Amino acid sequence: MKITALETLQLGEFPNILFVQLYTDSGLIGLGETFFGAPEVATYLHETASSTLLGRDAGQIDALRLALKRYVGTKGTGVECRGNSALDIALWDLLGQATGLPVYALLGGASRDAVRVYNTCAGYRYVRSTTGQSRENWGVADPATGGADTAASGPYEDLEAWLHGDAGELAHGLLAQSITGMKMWPVDEYAYATNGTNITAAQLNAGLEPFRRVRRAVGDAMDLMVELHGLWNLPTALKIARAFESEGINPYWIEDPLRPDDIASLARFAQGTTIPTTASELLGGRQGFRELLEARAASIVMLDLGWCGGISEGKAIAGMAEAFGLPSGLTNTN
Known about the structure:
- The protein is an alpha/beta fold.
- It has 2 domains: 3-106, Enolase-like, domain 1; 119-279, TIM Barrel, CATH 3.20.20.
- The chain contains 12 helices and 10 strands.
- A 7-stranded parallel beta sheet has the order 4-5-6-7-8-9-10, covered by helices on one side.
- Strand 2 and strand 3 form a beta hairpin.
- The two termini are 28 Å apart.
């Protein structure tokens, strides 16, 4: 089963997602995907990766993974890693079709009957275009003008609900759908203002309020996750964590308080708070996660199959997390 063509697709409905199709001489077509900076990833795939793939046996997934490694872009989730992630997913899709088996069976079989999910409390307009990790791509109403991007809408605008409405009411709605975990990021805006170097007492108080509302509304029936998007420096991230500790909100985890390119500081953070630290969809490849695990810089290993290198890397990372006695989970699955 030789690879004969590579196609990339972007949809006007959500142009930040890049779909990749690998065509083969058997007639099978493998589908993969990645997210963020879709035009840049597409350029890499067509101008660089395609020459490695075309004419190769699609069943040699591990050999192709090694062949696609580049001289630059190590341990991160940059263009090359995201493109290779989409290709790896497409190759596993092809293998599943060729064998008539689901991918989980090819990976060793199901290990559980169900997987718990949580709700990242965003909405239909969230990050529809790549403008960095900033409020400009949240797709929410501008408090100054009341305007918002209305190009997309739907019944579940959870970001608007907790940011401008009542997070407690949102929690009731999620519990009614049997969703018992929710993640919010109410202090990001303060990081944008100072490049993550300071947060005031008033800002901390405002950031804690959505979490207080959930606890008042539903008590401990809802697990609460705090997302910090890697926007803070170490002292300020610890200040935020200690504010949550002092409130007794008892978050399920605090995610990406710092960028994971400073593993030593991330380890200091993880050891400086009682809240479990989750990291990191911002890492790519098993080598980056090995360093994270060896430094004891995370309590929960979070990876994105569309960013970390695909299913092959995801399987390896999950195996390492198990060896270190830590749980692992997936984020941003579409």
